[in-house]
Design a protein that fits this description.
Blueprint: H1 10-18, H2 22-33, E1 38-39, H3 40-47, H4 51-63, E2 67-72, E3 86-91, H5 105-119, H6 122-144, H7 149-155, E4 160-163, E5 166-169, H8 175-180, H9 182-199, E6 207-209, E7 218-221
Antiparallel strand pairs: 1-3, 2-3, 4-5, 5-7, 6-7
Helix pairs in contact: 2-3, 2-4, 3-4, 6-9
């Protein structure tokens, strides 16, 4: 087998390589963390660069598939004299990954999810996820004292953000699996986060299902949710 056959797709390598530039990385982080679409002016101001430089880097990120762009007029004025539509950016829906040497953990995850679903081992999976979360939470306490749930979730890729009394999760680390096996994977995810809460010494009842488009199906409230029979399964 030729050496190049063992490398990830060129597109993924190029996309990841683009983020080595600190300005580009800052722009990507700002757009990815925004609640909605971001204009060039907003992105430039957020990272402290000129608009032209921001536009150059943002468009490079679009070319690489890390961001998506659209055009829309800002403000309420329409018709002649309303000005040109602004170019707006948001995080791309797809994902970019590279492994050296190549690995296929996602394929294994799909096979395992299918096996669990077909065998009816949902409760066993949830119990295992809760135990794993509890152990991970305890390790966080040992390493960092009292970290709180927000940095623990952030370190695991959930991208938590405050929304009133709730902590919502912008990213689902299991998005592809959840799209194919939503009931199985979302219940596993809830159990994992409940375990993390228990492990760091916070009430597991703070986590609850709260699905919505473009975010994780679990939210964490400031106050514990009412106890359910599920809490006592393991």
């Amino acid at each position: 087998m030729a050496a190049m056959d063992t490398l990830p797709p060129d597109r993924d390598l190029v996309a990841i390589g683009l983020l080595q530039d600190p300005v580009r990385r800052a722009l990507y982080g700002h757009v990815a963390g925004a609640e909605g679409e971001v204009s060039r002016n907003q992105a430039a101001e957020a990272v402290g660069v000129q608009r032209g430089l921001a536009a150059f880097h943002l468009d490079k990120l679009v070319e690489a598939g890390l961001l998506e762009a659209s055009f829309r007029r800002l403000g309420e004025r329409r018709g002649p004299g309303a000005g040109r539509p602004a170019k707006l950016y948001r995080r791309a829906a797809g994902e970019v990954a590279a492994s050296l040497p190549p690995r296929s953990y996602e394929a294994a995850g799909h096979l395992l999810a299918e096996a669990v679903e077909q065998s009816g081992a949902d409760l066993e999976l949830q119990a295992a996820a809760r135990r794993a979360g509890r152990e991970a939470g305890r390790r966080e306490v040992t390493a960092a004292g009292e970290p709180g749930i927000e940095p623990v979730l952030a370190a695991r890729g959930y991208e938590p953000y405050r929304d009133g009394p709730s902590l919502r999760l912008r990213n689902c680390p299991f998005a592809n699996l959840a799209g194919e096996y939503p009931v199985l994977v979302c219940a596993m995810n809830l159990s994992l986060i409940e375990g993390l809460l228990e492990g760091i010494g916070e009430p597991a009842g703070r986590a609850a299902m709260d699905p919505a488009p473009s975010r994780c199906c679990v939210a964490v409230s400031d106050r514990p949710q009412p106890a359910t029979s599920k809490d006592n399964q393991d």
